[in-house]
Hints:
Blueprint: H1 4-7, E1 11-15, H2 23-33, E2 39-43, E3 49-52, E4 55-58, E5 67-72, H3 79-86, E6 90-95, H4 106-119, E7 122-124, E8 130-133, E9 138-141, E10 148-155, H5 158-171, E11 175-180, H6 189-198, E12 204-209, H7 215-225, E13 231-235, H8 240-250, H9 257-267, E14 270-272, H10 275-287, E15 294-299, H11 302-314, E16 318-319, H12 324-333, E17 344-345, H13 352-363, E18 370-375, H14 383-392, E19 399-403, H15 410-418, H16 427-439
Parallel strand pairs: 1-2, 1-5, 5-6, 6-7, 10-11, 10-12, 12-13, 13-14, 15-16, 15-17, 15-18, 18-19
Antiparallel strand pairs: 3-4, 8-9, 8-11
Helix pairs in contact: 3-4, 6-7, 10-16, 11-16, 12-13, 13-14, 14-15
Keywords: ATP-binding, Ligase, Nucleotide-binding
Catalytic activity: acetate + ATP + CoA = acetyl-CoA + ADP + phosphate
Pfam families: CoA_binding_2, Ligase_CoA_2, Succ_CoA_lig
Amino acid sequence: xxxxxxxxxxxxxxxxxxxxxxxxxxxxxxxxxxxxxxxxxxxxxxxxxxxxxxxxxxxxxxxxxxxxxxxxxxxxxxxxxxxxxxxxxxxxxxxxxxxxxxxxxxxxxxxxxxxxxxxxxxxxxxxxxxxxxxxxxxxxxxxxxxxxxxxxxxxxxxxxxxxxxxxxxxxxxxxxxxxxxxxxxxxxxxxxxxxxxxxxxxxxxxxxxxxxxxxxxxxxxxxxxxxxxxxxxxxxxxxxxxxxxxxxxxxxxxxxxxxxxxxxxxxxxxxxxxxxxxxxxxxxxxxxxxxxxxxxxxxxxxxxxxxxxxxxxxxxxxxxxxxxxxxxxxxxxxxxxxxxxxxxxxxxxxxxxxxxxxxxxxxxxxxxxxxxxxxxxxxxxxxxxxxxxxxxxxxxxxxxxxxxxxxxxxxxxxxxxxxxxxxxxxxxxxxxxxxxxxxxxxx
Length: 443
């Protein structure tokens, strides 16, 4: 499905009020400040001018030229008529306006769909927060802008999407796109799954859903997308009460969670339990496509190594049995106090050379698929020294890093991030990142 005109548009028209603080004004500001290089046309029947971030725009009274996308933030009752009026000039419309099926106004939503289909216009929304095409410098939403990267975020809830974008910025996630699809009156999560599976700038797809309207279409989309990209799903409305809340929120059919869970498992989607896990999964798939189940743990502190081991084994990962050759090579240079069993404990005074050589030796072991490197630096060894050891080490296997904690490791974490290496804040979160990578081995 070709939806490039939404996420890589060459022109956009925005309908609504352009007084400061109004939704249409904020979307115009986001598009202008985000560096959009196409044509931007604000539209309101009253006309006039609006200044945004030092740029002046003429507010046109009506749309009088062909435009890729219309973003509509006007009273709901006026939306179907507007689509009828401008439908011959646009390819797609993002309907921000609320007041449709989510409040029981089914007839108005049906009218919107009918008008759009008559004109051949694709609709995102209504009752949504808009869209981003980050690589196209298109920020067609009132949510916080994000940095360019590989994660496409599809959210049924606009508020969740906005919070997720803000958290993603804090976590250092790079996004390819964002779409809040609201009531899904036309385009649905299934359409976006298919589109982002083929999008050249998307490495992984994250999906927040409360329920879907067409289960067969959703399953077909999962079957299509999961062999191509990791699909990370956060499903809300699992409990009976949550299911009722989801249905009242978006008007979707939340359905039995067990049915969803079976579909996720069957087609290789990666289900996470909470927002923190969604971003951890996104981070690991930004670095690696997949990994085997046999991991080696390298640490300078026994406790975190044990925590990582417990978590890994509880998830069905295997603590790799190191070869005699590897054990011999480690014993030749490590102090006698160090443990060369897996987990490998380099003890508290482990420095650049100890970490670097250990990573390189263990990375060559045929029994090891991936490495989890933990660092809890003492005050006399800067965390950036250990970060540099990880960066410099010659190892062609996936490495997941857990630096703890806070100010003590801030400089090291920053140095790793500059080289595209993400930090996982606890040993358990790092181990779970390997679990998600291992799931892709089956796809």
